Structures are given as structure tokens and as C-alpha cells.
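Reply to dn_fold:

You asked what the input looked like. This is it:
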Amino acid sequence: MITKVFGKRRNTWFILLTGLLFAFIGCHNRQIDPQNPILGKWVQIQSDGDRIKSKEVHEYLPDSTVRFYNLDESQQFTGNEYRLNDSILFSGYFTNNRFSGVAYKYEFFDKKRKLRLIHYPPGSTVTFAPIPTTVYQRIK
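and this is what came back:
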């Protein structure tokens, strides 16, 4: 009885299972650019150890700009330029090779799905003052 049911519908089962497998792999294996893993959309989930629910999205684009907006995109904020230098993220404006903005020590974790930014005080070369430390999560 069982072999008759699966025998008649073997092609249907094969197509269905193959489609589910490809759908799972496609959803699970999102492409993250190894040369620039910060590319994409991020939302803040933690500030100084406290979990928060932020609606502001930071979208890092390939042209070295970052766009800020609400999750529902109802309000657009001004964008900045960004640069990555070893483990430092510079976000602000660059004119004549001079930087004006904020610098953070950054680190990716949880398979590059989360990003920790630690405020890097200007002129400091010895320590990274964790004031404040924020955590962002990659979103679709």
C-alpha cells in the first residue's frame, strides 16, 4: 500500500522535496561580501548592555555611504560617508582627506549577523573607551 502511494507520486515528492531544499539553502545562505561585510541593513538591538527595540535602520551601501531611516521608511534621515580601516569604522564626512565625524572599533559576531560598535574617542591610540557600546543585527 505504502509503496503504491509513493510509487505513483514519486516525481511529485521528488520535486517538492527538492524545491524545499533549495528554498532552505537560499534563505539560510545569504551572501555576505567577504571584502566588505558591513554592507547591508542593520538595526540596533542593544545599547550599553540593555536590549532595545529601535526602528532606525542603518544601511551601508557599496558607494561608501550610509543611509539612516525608519523601518517603515516613512522618515528618511541624512546619510553619512563611512570608511573601514582595519578594525575602525569611521562615519561622518571626508573632505580633502580629513575626517569629521565619529569613529568606532567594530567587530562582527554570530556568523557576521551581528555587529558591535565601541565608541573610539578621537586622538586616543591606547584604549577604546566603551562609552557607549552598541550592538546591531543584520536585517533583510
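The beta strands are 40-47, 50-51, 56-60, 65-70, 80-85, 88-95, 98-109, 114-120, 133-139.
Hope that clears it up.
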